[in-house]
Amino acid sequence: MSRLVRRYLRRARRSEDGATTIEFLIWFPFFITLVGSSIEAGLMQLQQSMLERALDLTIRDLRIGVLHDPSHDDLKVAVCNRIMLVPDCRTDLLLELTEVRTTSWTMPTGATQCTDRSLEIQPVTTFQPGLQNDLVTVRACIKVEPLFPTTGLGLELPKDAAGMYALTSTSAFVNEPRG
Known about the structure:
179 residues, 3-stranded antiparallel beta sheet, 5 helices, 43% helix, 16% strand
Protein backbone atom coordinates (compact mmCIF):
# COMPACT_ATOMS: atom_id res chain seq x y z
CA MET A 1 0.00 0.00 0.00
CA SER A 2 2.73 2.46 0.81
CA ARG A 3 4.27 1.62 -2.56
CA LEU A 4 1.08 2.74 -4.31
CA VAL A 5 1.03 5.95 -2.33
CA ARG A 6 4.67 6.68 -3.20
CA ARG A 7 4.04 6.02 -6.88
CA TYR A 8 0.97 8.28 -6.85
CA LEU A 9 2.87 11.10 -5.12
CA ARG A 10 5.80 10.75 -7.55
CA ARG A 11 3.43 10.99 -10.52
CA ALA A 12 1.62 13.96 -9.00
CA ARG A 13 4.92 15.75 -8.41
CA ARG A 14 5.99 15.35 -12.07
CA SER A 15 2.58 16.28 -13.47
CA GLU A 16 2.16 19.78 -14.86
CA ASP A 17 -1.62 19.80 -14.62
CA GLY A 18 -2.82 22.99 -12.96
CA ALA A 19 0.29 25.02 -13.85
CA THR A 20 -1.82 27.59 -15.70
CA THR A 21 -4.20 27.80 -12.75
CA ILE A 22 -1.47 29.34 -10.63
CA GLU A 23 -0.67 31.93 -13.29
CA PHE A 24 -4.36 32.66 -13.65
CA LEU A 25 -4.72 33.18 -9.90
CA ILE A 26 -1.77 35.56 -9.90
CA TRP A 27 -2.87 37.70 -12.88
CA PHE A 28 -6.68 37.60 -12.62
CA PRO A 29 -7.04 40.19 -9.79
CA PHE A 30 -4.74 42.59 -11.66
CA PHE A 31 -6.79 42.36 -14.89
CA ILE A 32 -10.12 42.64 -13.08
CA THR A 33 -8.86 45.76 -11.26
CA LEU A 34 -7.65 47.20 -14.58
CA VAL A 35 -10.99 46.53 -16.28
CA GLY A 36 -12.96 47.92 -13.32
CA SER A 37 -10.81 51.05 -13.20
CA SER A 38 -11.22 51.54 -16.95
CA ILE A 39 -15.00 51.30 -16.66
CA GLU A 40 -14.98 53.68 -13.67
CA ALA A 41 -12.80 56.22 -15.51
CA GLY A 42 -14.98 56.03 -18.63
CA LEU A 43 -18.19 56.52 -16.67
CA MET A 44 -16.65 59.38 -14.68
CA GLN A 45 -15.54 61.12 -17.90
CA LEU A 46 -18.99 60.61 -19.44
CA GLN A 47 -20.72 62.09 -16.39
CA GLN A 48 -18.27 65.02 -16.34
CA SER A 49 -18.94 65.74 -20.03
CA MET A 50 -22.69 65.58 -19.46
CA LEU A 51 -22.44 68.02 -16.56
CA GLU A 52 -20.36 70.43 -18.65
CA ARG A 53 -22.77 70.25 -21.60
CA ALA A 54 -25.91 70.56 -19.46
CA LEU A 55 -24.47 73.58 -17.66
CA ASP A 56 -23.41 75.23 -20.95
CA LEU A 57 -26.85 74.72 -22.53
CA THR A 58 -28.63 76.03 -19.44
CA ILE A 59 -26.37 79.09 -19.23
CA ARG A 60 -26.99 79.72 -22.93
CA ASP A 61 -30.75 79.69 -22.25
CA LEU A 62 -30.22 82.07 -19.35
CA ARG A 63 -27.99 84.38 -21.38
CA ILE A 64 -30.31 84.73 -24.37
CA GLY A 65 -33.39 85.18 -22.22
CA VAL A 66 -35.18 81.83 -22.53
CA LEU A 67 -35.02 81.57 -18.73
CA HIS A 68 -36.35 84.77 -17.14
CA ASP A 69 -35.14 85.56 -13.62
CA PRO A 70 -34.69 81.93 -12.54
CA SER A 71 -34.24 80.87 -8.95
CA HIS A 72 -31.60 78.40 -7.77
CA ASP A 73 -34.12 75.57 -8.02
CA ASP A 74 -35.21 76.61 -11.53
CA LEU A 75 -31.61 76.49 -12.76
CA LYS A 76 -31.03 73.18 -11.00
CA VAL A 77 -34.07 71.64 -12.72
CA ALA A 78 -32.95 73.02 -16.09
CA VAL A 79 -29.47 71.50 -15.68
CA CYS A 80 -30.76 68.17 -14.34
CA ASN A 81 -33.24 67.80 -17.20
CA ARG A 82 -30.26 67.74 -19.57
CA ILE A 83 -28.04 65.31 -17.65
CA MET A 84 -28.28 61.58 -18.21
CA LEU A 85 -26.50 58.82 -16.29
CA VAL A 86 -26.39 60.86 -13.08
CA PRO A 87 -28.92 59.52 -10.60
CA ASP A 88 -30.40 61.84 -7.96
CA CYS A 89 -29.25 64.94 -9.82
CA ARG A 90 -31.76 67.24 -8.13
CA THR A 91 -30.59 66.07 -4.72
CA ASP A 92 -26.85 66.04 -5.38
CA LEU A 93 -26.37 69.12 -7.62
CA LEU A 94 -25.43 72.48 -6.15
CA LEU A 95 -25.11 75.67 -8.21
CA GLU A 96 -23.38 78.92 -7.31
CA LEU A 97 -23.80 82.18 -9.26
CA THR A 98 -21.43 85.00 -8.42
CA GLU A 99 -21.29 88.42 -10.01
CA VAL A 100 -17.79 89.45 -11.07
CA ARG A 101 -17.03 93.14 -10.60
CA THR A 102 -15.33 94.48 -13.72
CA THR A 103 -13.52 97.09 -11.68
CA SER A 104 -11.46 94.55 -9.74
CA TRP A 105 -12.02 91.33 -11.80
CA THR A 106 -12.18 89.35 -8.57
CA MET A 107 -13.20 85.79 -9.41
CA PRO A 108 -14.74 83.39 -6.88
CA THR A 109 -12.10 81.79 -4.72
CA GLY A 110 -11.97 78.56 -2.81
CA ALA A 111 -13.31 75.17 -3.68
CA THR A 112 -16.68 74.78 -5.31
CA GLN A 113 -19.34 74.05 -2.69
CA CYS A 114 -20.86 70.57 -2.93
CA THR A 115 -23.66 68.70 -1.25
CA ASP A 116 -22.91 66.04 1.33
CA ARG A 117 -25.45 63.31 2.04
CA SER A 118 -23.82 62.57 5.38
CA LEU A 119 -24.80 66.05 6.67
CA GLU A 120 -28.34 67.24 7.33
CA ILE A 121 -27.51 70.89 6.68
CA GLN A 122 -26.23 71.64 3.19
CA PRO A 123 -23.74 74.44 2.43
CA VAL A 124 -25.08 77.86 1.54
CA THR A 125 -24.09 79.12 -1.88
CA THR A 126 -24.28 82.58 -3.36
CA PHE A 127 -26.90 83.19 -6.01
CA GLN A 128 -26.35 86.61 -7.57
CA PRO A 129 -27.67 86.55 -11.14
CA GLY A 130 -26.51 90.13 -11.66
CA LEU A 131 -28.00 92.96 -13.72
CA GLN A 132 -27.76 93.85 -17.40
CA ASN A 133 -24.21 93.71 -18.80
CA ASP A 134 -22.85 92.11 -15.61
CA LEU A 135 -20.36 89.25 -15.86
CA VAL A 136 -21.51 86.25 -13.82
CA THR A 137 -19.62 83.04 -13.05
CA VAL A 138 -21.50 79.82 -12.48
CA ARG A 139 -19.97 76.94 -10.56
CA ALA A 140 -21.70 73.58 -10.40
CA CYS A 141 -20.88 70.58 -8.27
CA ILE A 142 -22.58 67.22 -8.34
CA LYS A 143 -21.81 64.24 -6.11
CA VAL A 144 -21.66 60.79 -7.71
CA GLU A 145 -21.21 57.34 -6.22
CA PRO A 146 -18.33 55.28 -7.64
CA LEU A 147 -19.35 52.16 -9.55
CA PHE A 148 -16.61 50.04 -7.93
CA PRO A 149 -15.88 51.84 -4.63
CA THR A 150 -13.56 49.18 -3.18
CA THR A 151 -11.16 48.53 -6.07
CA GLY A 152 -8.84 50.40 -8.38
CA LEU A 153 -9.79 53.95 -9.28
CA GLY A 154 -12.98 53.87 -7.16
CA LEU A 155 -10.85 53.19 -4.10
CA GLU A 156 -8.43 56.05 -4.83
CA LEU A 157 -10.97 58.79 -5.62
CA PRO A 158 -11.30 61.50 -2.94
CA LYS A 159 -14.71 60.84 -1.37
CA ASP A 160 -16.85 62.48 1.29
CA ALA A 161 -18.26 60.76 4.37
CA ALA A 162 -21.13 59.31 2.30
CA GLY A 163 -18.65 57.66 -0.11
CA MET A 164 -19.33 60.01 -3.05
CA TYR A 165 -16.88 61.94 -5.21
CA ALA A 166 -17.42 65.39 -6.72
CA LEU A 167 -17.65 66.44 -10.35
CA THR A 168 -17.38 70.20 -10.87
CA SER A 169 -17.87 72.55 -13.77
CA THR A 170 -17.44 76.30 -14.16
CA SER A 171 -18.93 78.64 -16.73
CA ALA A 172 -19.40 82.37 -17.17
CA PHE A 173 -21.78 84.63 -19.04
CA VAL A 174 -22.66 88.27 -19.48
CA ASN A 175 -26.27 89.29 -18.91
CA GLU A 176 -27.59 90.59 -22.20
CA PRO A 177 -29.51 93.86 -22.22
CA ARG A 178 -33.25 93.25 -22.21
CA GLY A 179 -35.76 95.29 -24.05
